[in-house]
Amino acid sequence: MEYRILGRTGIKVSAVGLGCSQIRGTLPPGEKNWTGLTDEEAIACIRHAPTVGVNLIDTAEVYAYGHSEDVIGRAMEGHRQEYVVATKVTPLPGAENDRFYSTDLSYSSAHQRILQACEGSLRRLRTDYIDVYQLHADPPDETLTPVMDALTRLKKEGKVRAIGTSTGSVDVIRKLIQAGELGMVQTQYNMLNRDKEDVLNLAIAENLGVLLRNPIASGVLSGKYFNTTPRLDPADKRNEGFAAAGTVDAFRKLAELRFLTEDGRRTMVQASLRFDLDTPGVTAPIPGVKNRRQLEENAGASDVAPLTSEERRRAMVIADEAMRIWKGKN
């Protein structure tokens, strides 16, 4: 496993992390878990992660209403030092109350929202510090100062090691840099969706670490659905996109990406993650998993051969054509 420094944070993280939104999906407890990942297997995956070199775990307070953090906390007990934990907070007053946000945007309300949310995450994670605390939404301009003041206070108190944000807006990133000690950014980027290169360029210029969410495009780039008509669980959140008119034709086009796996050099998942890893500005993709086998496959992306410039060019041409087919029939 390769390890990289997460920008200004100075924290060393594995080049491939573990995203934990799949732990009970994003559904409240009691509703069907469309991901198929049980708590027992999630704990096994988290405990197995260090053995394959993965130290970076990413989650959020809203994932299954705190259940994801709780499971991670249980998995880490007695081994906290082996992990770099990144979690996220929604910087909106009232966000703790079942997504019904308050209209109170006063300094006190916005400031307290961050402090109280952090205490909740610390409790669920069973730890006394969070390595990377990220904003999970762009704060309204009027709350920017209290939000960053609260994050700075948490860092000074030792409850947070580094401050980050999950956003696709370069304007928001610039504002946060001016308002406080921003050290990293999480954004969406993969072979199919490369429209956040402006975020990557800004991260390079400002020495910000970058984590990539959705690095294999919700499984589209895994190869599992190439040349198929996807049949998903009715509760699967991907149903709407996969049911689009151009999906089958787009997946047929994407099957041409299998040239990246010739001679067993890489699996399709590893080729997709390697594409992300070789993109300038990227620190680490954070794919999710359903089992330990997938975790091992993901981790292996760090060790496979990088894509050549010609492989990368050819892959982007195929991906772009597939996207045109997908969008053009809708």
Structural description of this entry:
By secondary structure, this protein is α/β, with parallel strands linked by helices. It has a single domain, classed as TIM Barrel. 37% of the residues lie in helices and 13% in strands. It has an 8-stranded parallel beta sheet with strand order 3-4-5-6-7-8-9-10, with helices on one face. A two-stranded antiparallel sheet has the order 1-2. α1 links the parallel β3 and β4. The longest helix is centred in the last third of the chain and has 20 residues. The termini are far apart. The mean pLDDT is 89.
Count of helices?
Answer: 11
Gross morphology: globular
- The oligomerization state is single chain
* Biggest sheet character: 8 strands, parallel
Question: How would you summarize this macromolecular structure in one to three sentences?
Answer:
This protein is an alpha/beta fold and 330 residues long. The protein has helices spanning 39-48, 67-76, 107-125, 144-156, 170-179, 197-206, 239-242, 247-254, 268-277, 292-300, 309-328, and strands at 3-5, 12-14, 18-19, 56-58, 84-89, 130-135, 160-166, 182-188, 209-213, 284-285.
Write the layout of secondary structure elements.
Elements lengths: L2 E3 L6 E3 L3 E2 L19 H10 L7 E3 L8 H10 L7 E6 L17 H19 L4 E6 L8 H13 L3 E7 L3 H10 L2 E7 L8 H10 L2 E5 L25 H4 L4 H8 L13 H10 L6 E2 L6 H9 L8 H20 L2
Parallel strand pairs: 3-4, 4-5, 5-6, 6-7, 7-8, 8-9, 9-10
Antiparallel strand pairs: 1-2
